[in-house]
Amino acid sequence: MKKGRISTKICVAIMALSMVISTGAFSIKANADQTDANTTLKTAFDAFNASGLVFLEYSVTGEGELLLNEKVELDRTNYVKNVLSQDVETSEWNTLYTDLKEKITYYQDDNKKWYKYPTDEEELQGLGKTLSENGVETDLVTGAAYKYDGEEVISVTNAHTDALTEVDCYRYLAEIPVVISDDGEYEDGEDADDEEEEADDDGEAVEEEPSTEIVNVYYYIAKATGTWVHAETKEGLIIDVDIAYPDPNDATMALEIPKEAKENAVLDPEYETPKSDKEVVGYKVVYKGKSAYLVVTSVKDVKKVTIKKSVKILGKTYPVKEIGASAFANKSKLQTVVIKANITKINKKAFYNSKKLKTITIKSKKLKTIGKNSFDTYSKKLTVKLSGNKKYKAKIRKLVKKSRAKKAAKKTKLTVK
């Protein structure tokens, strides 16, 4: 399973999709003769939020090409959410099982081996913006304008039984303002994230101005049942969502996490810890035989960063043994780095071109490998503070000197002590 950055098209599609299947408090531009329909809309959204079982099936199509096809099975009573994703090339289905209470997601690879990872906030919410004690509580996108848009008979596929049914519906149009940031990611009515910034010719960070687009989303409410059964977009990326509400009293409908997943799953080797205001460092798990350790993959651009000796994930403690390639590279604010015990390897260009970096303190006495250009910060002055005996420090000085480019050696006054 790969969880790297996805393409701009899919980023756009998923953002739009999250808006399509968000529900809750809203404002409606209503006329006097729309009172009954508006009441139906509110009732339908309330029913969606209150339902113990909700099944959805949605697809995203761009320029005639199927980009995404997924099903969501949500059991608020048992705190379980299953996401079934279809490979658009092979048509095979893969399932992610999420325990909403424990905030853990499980999946099985092609070799039938089970993996798990802590569920991040976006995946945990799944159908909206906030997680409630009952599973998922949803809110409509802020800043959107909603209005009654007529009536229509549509064909709806039951996301549970796959039966196709014609449904007489009220139709609503939501005009949703979407902010697109410079990296192609969409945000609903909020300022674009400036965490990732481009650099100008002088190496200083430059934030590009975000742009705003309007996405039209149509909501369909069944007249007969007063339930929300469908949503779609009709231009650009075509998003189609069908909704079903299985009988909560049917015991066969209750969702469960597979027993073998809970018993046998190990931490996903592709998993990277998320950065936040409190945690500015991203770590990735690496397996060497049966043992596992963490590699520092990236850090936020702040003045001081501390690399922990170990990190606890899903109840297990993993040592931090490596600084990944370019993990601290090209930072415009970074001044101080403290690396605690257990680090054995610093990969190439680890601190490359971080021009304000002044001090790197390495408390580990186990460092053995330093990659090319790791300490080529191009700052005016850089001090590397080491722990350990004289022999160890002498060895590290040689490794640091050997790793440096001639240009960097001339640019930066380096002291290793």
The biggest sheet amounts to:
14 strands, mixed
The residue fraction in helices comes out at: 10-25%
SS elements, strand count: 27
Q: What portion of residues belong to β-strands?
A: 35-45%
Mean pLDDT across every amino acid position: 82
Shape, principal axes of CA atoms: elongated
Which CATH C-level class of the largest domain is it?
A: Mainly Beta
**Number of domains as seen in the coordinates:** 2
CATH architecture classification name of the largest domain: Clam
CATH topology heading of the largest domain: outer membrane lipoprotein receptor (LolB), chain A
Quaternary form: single chain
Low-confidence stretches: 1-16, 22-33, 126-140, 182-202
Question: Please, could you describe this protein's structure?
Answer:
With 417 residues, the protein is mainly beta. It folds into two domains: 246 residues, Clam (outer membrane lipoprotein receptor (LolB), chain A); 145 residues, Alpha-Beta Horseshoe (Leucine-rich repeat, LRR (right-handed beta-alpha superhelix)), CATH 3.80.10. It has six helices and 27 strands. The strands form four sheets. Strands 1, 2, 3, 4, 5, 6, 7, 8, 9, 10, 13, 14, 15 and 16 form a 14-stranded mixed beta sheet that branches. Strands 17, 18, 20, 21, 23 and 25 form a six-stranded mixed beta sheet that branches. A five-stranded parallel beta sheet has the order 19-22-24-26-27. The N terminus is likely disordered.
